[in-house]
Amino acid sequence: MDNISRAQILIEALPYIRQFAKKTIVIKYGGHAMAEQSLKDKFVLDIILIKCVGINPVIVHGGGPQINQIMERMGIRPTFVEGQRVTDDETMSVVEMVLVGTVNKEIVGLINRHEGRAVGLSGRDGDLIQADPMKIYKYTGDERPPEIIDIGRVGKVSIINAGVLKSLENSGFVPVIAPVGVGPEGQAYNINADLVAGAVAGELKAEKLILLTDVPGVMGSKNELIPSMTADEVRKALEDGTATGGMIPKLKACLKALGRGVDKAHVIDGRKEHAILLELLTDAGVGTEIVQ
After folding, report:
1. Model confidence, pTM
2. Among 87, 163, 268, 269, which one is least packed by beta carbons within 10 Å?
3. pLDDT tens digit string along 186-218?
4. Are 198 and 252 in contact (CB under 8 A)?
5. 81: alpha, beta or left, given left = phi > 0 and alpha = psi -120 to 50?
6. Pairing mode, strands 264-269 and 288-291
7. 7 phi, psi to nearest 5 deg
8. What average pLDDT does range 281-289 have in this prediction?
9. pLDDT by residue (tens digit) across 126-150?
10. Do 225 and 216 form a contact (C-beta atoms < 8 A)?
């Protein structure tokens, strides 16, 4: 690439830097982007760069594969119901140990090692994420009430206390959040990271919610990438079965964020190098954009 081409890339980024300066971007970090070292390093450099140009990133991370590995070593078999991890007391101890004690600290350490400034948080810190128990209802027939399935200490977000996040942003730090919430009696709850990211974005009135995935974006019925969707189209995809598996909580998170005033949500391929920069600071963007 010649010098003129390099200069043109910077010029292309300029209007986006101006547009998003001092705005908050909530990023859900997971999948291959969190597992492969080369992608980890590039993700961290993306975060540091956007922070340096005045954009405020907030990271919410997952850690499902890491939890599964530790559970299997301990002889505990992971069990899932409708995509949610069944979480008894023993499983909750593993979830909190891995997410808060290992994964969160690794992300924070990597950002700081690359000369960024990050602070790790559990949802229990300062009651950041208050949660209620999640219930799953199973259809049992038109004439019968639904069966209520107990999945243990799995939570849904009730309140996000955003004050601590705003204080960290204003002090120049990048908040890195583990999706563990606190219940009414002080007990820990395991919460889907996509849903936490959507709730955080809504509470902060973020400019954008970006969800990193292991697919190109939202895929249509013919396995084609859908570059743009409205909230109504997302609801239809959820209702007619176009959205399946792990895409369901992601799209629900996007709807929640948009409903709380977030301007746009994006489902993008975290396996692409510098996916965040491509989405934020270029004309083309990547993945699927979701608007109200």
Report:
1. 0.91
2. 163
3. 999 999 999 999 999 999 999 999 999 888 888
4. yes
5. beta
6. antiparallel
7. -65, -40
8. 85
9. 899 999 998 877 666 666 667 677 8
10. yes
**Segments in 21-159 forming alpha helices (H):** 37-52, 64-73, 89-98, 104-113
Q: What is the CATH number of domain 22-78+86-122+174-179+194-278?
A: 3.40.1160.10
Tens digits of residue pLDDT in 50-95:
999 999 999 999 998 899 999 999 998 888 877 778 899 999 999 9
Task: Classify strands 84-85 and 80-81 as parallel, antiparallel or unpaired.
Answer: antiparallel
Helix (H, G, I), strand (E, B) or coil at 206: coil
Closest of 253, 255, 265 to residue 290, by C-alpha: 265
Eight-state DSSP code of residue 53: T
Q: Give residue for tokens 């270029």.
A: 282
Q: Cα(194)–Cα(30) distance, rounded to whole angstroms?
A: 9
Q: How far, in Å, CA of 10 to CA of 33, rounded? A: 25
Residues found in the chain? 292
